[in-house]
């Protein structure tokens, strides 16, 4: 059961000495599953390999920290561990979810899907004895693949959420919203679904908005045109230039914090809820707080 770091870069042994840095601090950038286990625990022997398998499948989107409760009794005591296996998910330095006991693989997948989206891995193929990597599929290819998968497995509601996200990545906001509205209630409150709702709100704000070049021209002529700066910030966010977009909202906040009923603050808070970069969000939360308090 002891995790072999050489076997996977996403799995490691957590100790009291490295917990602060490798789990709490690291979770600001990447969620960390913490598995409290022991060598004598029967259910741990069932759960551990399943967790390791799924974490590897997530391809670095989440890491697995394994805590041997016999060796790390003080660490287990700090978290009030009374039965094992106990698993906790740490994100942004805080425990956000967890469970006790050995869950089946389907339940583990559902648990992870509420919080983490797998990272895409490039396709590989063995050709003439060499491993050749191919480019990741385009958003359109992803949509086609998911639509086929849904036709073959209509009972897999998670695929419909994946399709909604794929439509949004392809710039099909209306299609993404339609798929999102059709999700069952248990998936409508999924973290990914909530982030997508926020992204759709930003996309709607740009309906009929000027182009980025036009907005930049307006600001060059009149730097205190907060309406133009606000739309520029939204456009930058939607087009993936996250930090630059957030900077536009901060600029409005510095110049006129109560502009349009505090819209710059509202934009920042909405952006924090949809961004998946915990370190960037934490940095801009601090910047916003320094301007408000």
Describe the protein in words.
The protein is an alpha/beta fold and 293 residues long. 54% of the residues lie in helices and 13% in strands. It is built from 14 helices and 7 strands. It has helices at 19-25, 42-57, 73-78, 105-113, 139-152, 157-169, 173-181, 185-188, 191-205, 212-221, 226-238, 242-255, 263-274, 278-292; strands at residues 11-13, 32-37, 63-68, 86-91, 94-100, 123-127, 130-134. The strands form 2 sheets. Strands 1-3-2-4-5 form a 5-stranded mixed β-sheet, sandwiched between helices. Strands 6-7 form a two-stranded antiparallel sheet. The termini are far apart. The relative contact order is 0.08.
Amino- and carboxy-terminal Cα gap: 49 Å
Give the number of DSSP strands.
7
Nearest-integer average pLDDT: 85
- Assign a percent range to the helix content: 40-55%
Spatial strand sequence of the major β-sheet = 1-3-2-4-5
- Please compute the radius of gyration using only Cα atoms: 22 Å
User: What structural category do the secondary elements indicate?
Assistant: alpha/beta
Query: Mind telling me the CATH class of the largest domain?
Result: Alpha Beta
Instruction: Output the helix-strand order.
Output: EHEHEHEEHEEHHHHHHHHHH
Compute the number of structural domains. 3
Low-confidence stretches: 1-6, 121-134
The major β-sheet equals: 5 strands, mixed
The coarse silhouette is: globular
Architecture of the largest domain, CATH level 2?
3-Layer(aba) Sandwich
Number of helices: 14
What is the CATH superfamily classification of the largest domain? Glutaredoxin
Strand coverage percent = 5-15%
Under CATH, the topology of the largest domain is which? Answer: Glutaredoxin
């Amino acid at each position: 059961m002891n995790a072999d770091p050489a076997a996977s870069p996403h799995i490691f042994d957590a100790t009291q000495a490295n917990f602060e840095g490798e789990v709490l601090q690291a979770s600001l950038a990447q969620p960390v599953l913490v598995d409290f286990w022991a060598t004598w625990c029967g259910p741990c022997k069932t759960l551990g390999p399943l967790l390791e398998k799924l974490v590897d499948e997530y391809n670095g989107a989440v890491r697995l920290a394994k805590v041997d409760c016999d060796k790390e009794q003080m660490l287990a005591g700090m978290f009030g561990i009374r039965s094992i296996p106990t698993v906790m998910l740490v994100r942004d330095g805080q425990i956000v979810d967890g469970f006790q006991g050995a869950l089946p693989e389907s339940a583990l997948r559902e648990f992870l899907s509420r919080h983490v989206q797998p990272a895409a891995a490039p396709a590989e193929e063995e050709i003439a004895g060499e491993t050749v990597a191919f480019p990741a599929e385009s958003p359109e290819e992803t949509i086609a693949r998911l639509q086929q998968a849904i036709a073959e497995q209509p009972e897999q509601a998670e695929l419909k959420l994946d399709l909604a996200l794929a439509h949004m990545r392809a710039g099909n906001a209306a299609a993404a919203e339609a798929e999102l509205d059709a999700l069952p209630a248990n998936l409508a409150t999924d973290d990914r679904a909530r982030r997508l709702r926020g992204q759709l709100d930003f996309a709607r704000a740009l309906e009929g908005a000027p182009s980025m070049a036009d907005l930049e021209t307006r600001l060059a002529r009149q730097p205190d045109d907060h309406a133009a700066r606000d739309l520029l910030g939204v456009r930058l966010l939607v087009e993936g230039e996250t930090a630059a977009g957030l900077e536009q909202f901060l600029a409005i906040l510095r110049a006129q914090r109560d502009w349009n009923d505090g819209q710059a603050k509202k934009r920042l808070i909405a952006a924090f809820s949809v961004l998946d970069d915990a370190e960037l969000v934490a940095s801009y939360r601090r910047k916003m707080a320094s301007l408000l308090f």
